[in-house]
Amino acid sequence: MKILILFFLFPFVLEAECFPVTTKIIFQGKAETAKNQLCKKRTKDGMLFFVSKSCEKDQCEILKRTPKNLIIKKYKDSIGSPGFKLCQELGGVPQIFEFQLDLAKEKKWQTSERCYFEREDFVEISLLTHEWKRFIH
Amino acid sequence: MKSMTFSLLFLVFTSSIALADNCSDAYTQFQNKTNEILNHSAITPNDMKDFDRAYEELSLLLLGESCEKETLFKANETRTHLKEKRAASLRAQNPQNSCTDVINQNEAVNLDNVRNQDGLGWCYAYAAADLLSFRLKKKISAISLYDSGQSIEKDIFSDGKGGDIGGSIEDYLRKKNSLCLEEDLPSSDFQFCTYRNYANFLQALYQSIEENSLADNQCLNQNLNAAFPGVDFSVVNTFSAKYGSRNLAEYLYDLQCKKRSFVGYKVNPVSLTTPRFKPDDLLKKVDGLLDTGEIVGYACQYGTLSETTDDSKKGGHAMLIVGRRQNPETGDCEYLLRNSWGKDCTDAEGEGFTCDKKCDENNDCRYSGHLWVNSRRMKNAMEGITYLP
Predict the structure, then answer these.
(1) How far is A44 from chain B (nearest CA, A)?
(2) Where are the extended beta strands (E) located within chain B?
(3) What is the pLDDT of residues B310-335, one digit of tens each?
(4) By the 8 A CB rule, do A121 and A52 touch?
(5) Contact predicate B160/B199, CB 8 Å
(6) Which DSSP symbol is given to B181?
(7) What is the three-class DSSP state of B77?
(8) For chains A and B, what is the number of CB pairs under 8 angstroms?
(9) How deeply is B380 buried, as exposed, middle or buried, from its count of CB atoms within 10 A (0-12, 13-18, 19+)?
């Protein structure tokens, strides 16, 4: 009976918001891989970004911060990647990384960039540019 | 207890039926509207807008419902069908149209692995590396291909001056008669102690040689070993005592690229520039190359391409043209540009300038770091193209 009740109470299996991944960074010329977790962060316009487990559901400091006007020197200069400049301006450390979904049927490496704030907190840099770009002058 | 369980079951069961009704009503309403659109003999831009409105209404009705994803997935299948019909309508209007859909990618250069040039002005080297990587199906080191026409020492003090795609390939092959793989000399960032970016780190390295302070700087030493594994301050000191700091970076690069790849490889990149060649003719050349499965280097004025009024953004930039499509909404021919700014979609999108998005079956969309730009903007901003014959 209990099984039946659970079936009716949860008629649809909820999609996991955090999932296991293998991450890869280049350090001292060598690829360093690690088991990690990435969590989903959706924006109002339906875009999906990945954040650390510690930033799940906007729990970490950077996602609680309200965007405000920023003046970033050379932000719009075509020299260099604008996202890295924003990450540094917000007090983070940018890092290029690759990841692979552990549960995916077809394993494929994808590249991305994250901005580290504290030891464990990171968000994808494209999330920062998406949320802050209106406030950069 | 039994009666309570039964009531609870009944409540859950009836509410599940109510949810299903809400969903099917909303979807039937959506289908009625979209079937009417699909019945048109030719699909117009206004039809596409009407579809978007119907989709928006459906999304609102389903907001928070458990059937939301499943129903929107079905609605997206209708969108795909409508886009196909719109493309067919455009082809029927203009049978001579050469703007067919194409995306050229392989295991070394694809929509999932866009590069990031960090704070360096070496966009041309990243484009050159991808051009070679695509041809050779192996990832070539981008930073190995720096060639701005001035020494690297000068170059890094200006955060990378810029250069040209074809020149950097020619110059490197002439000097080294081989190539360096990305795995031997990674262009991706490493964890800096205090330095803003790669160029900033190299600047600090040069400064410490001049001041003879490298041995005391633990942080710089760590970074040196991270950027150039196996190299410590004694290697740098020995080199600089003999030759000074000139060509140090090239020496350190060569140490990492000891295992030479594609030895003896020869290619003479073809660079065609404006105003000698008309942008119209260059874009025709691009079309021909895309049709034969190639990708093409593209040099442009970025400010003109993005149509910004911001003066600081009006510098030259290099990217790659990797695809083409006919925009089903506007009918414009658009080109897919591979940038080297990571997955960012930094610029304000506008007509004929949109960020490429990849959406999955759950309707979750992610940026790929590529841009769709229409032919008008491509021609206006064009400075030249480079391809490998």
Answers:
(1) 11
(2) 102-103, 270-273, 296-301, 316-326, 333-338, 353-359, 365-374, 382-387
(3) 665 567 889 999 999 988 778 889 99
(4) yes
(5) yes
(6) B
(7) helix
(8) 150
(9) middle
- What CA–CA distance (Å, rounded) separates B89 from B37? 13
Q: Helix, strand, or coil here: B274?
A: coil
pLDDT, tens only, B328-383: 778 889 999 999 989 987 776 778 899 999 888 777 889 999 999 999 999 999 99
ipTM of the modeled complex: 0.82
**Distance in angstroms (rounded) separating the CA atoms of residues B148 and B321:** 22
A110/B342 Cβ within 8 A:
no
Q: pLDDT, tens digit, for every residue of B182-196?
A: 988 888 765 566 666
Q: What are the chain B neighbours of A6 within 8 Å (beta carbons)?
A: none
Q: In chain B, which among 258-297 make CB contacts under 8 A with chain A? A: none
Res. B42 pLDDT band, cuts 50 70 90: confident
Question: Strand locations in B204-315, DSSP E?
Answer: 270-273, 296-301
What's the rounded Cα separation, in Å, for the pair B319 and B353?
15
Residue of chain A whose alpha carbon sits nearest to that of B114? A111
Q: Answer whether A111's CB lies under 8 Å from A23's CB.
A: no
A28 interaction partners in chain B (CB closer than 8 Å): 190, 225-226, 229
A131 touches chain B (CB under 8 A): no
Task: Render chain A in DSSP notation, one character per residue.
Answer: -HHHHHHHH--SPPPPSEEEEEEEEEETTEEEEEEEEEEEEE-TTSBEEEEEGGGGGG-SHHHHSPP--B--TTTTSSSS-HHHHHHHHTT-EEEEEEEEETT-SS---EEEEEEE-SSS-EEEHHHHHHHHGGGB-
Name residues 50-79 of chain A within 8 A of B (Cβ): 74, 76-79
**Cβ contacts of A14 on chain B, cutoff 8 Å:** none
Distance CA B221, CA B82 (A): 59
Asked if residue B367 lies in contact with residue B357, where contact means CB atoms within 8 angstroms, the answer is yes
The model carries a pTM of 0.82
Per DSSP, the three-state class of B319 is strand
End-to-end C-alpha distance for chain B, whole angstroms: 81
Which residues in A lie closer than 8 A to residue B191 (C-beta atoms)?
Answer: 27, 93, 95
Give yes or no for a contact between B119 and B159, defined as CB atoms under 8 angstroms apart.
yes
User: Is B386 exposed, middle or buried, given 0-12, 13-18 or 19+ CB atoms closer than 10 A?
Assistant: buried
pLDDT at A106 over 90: no
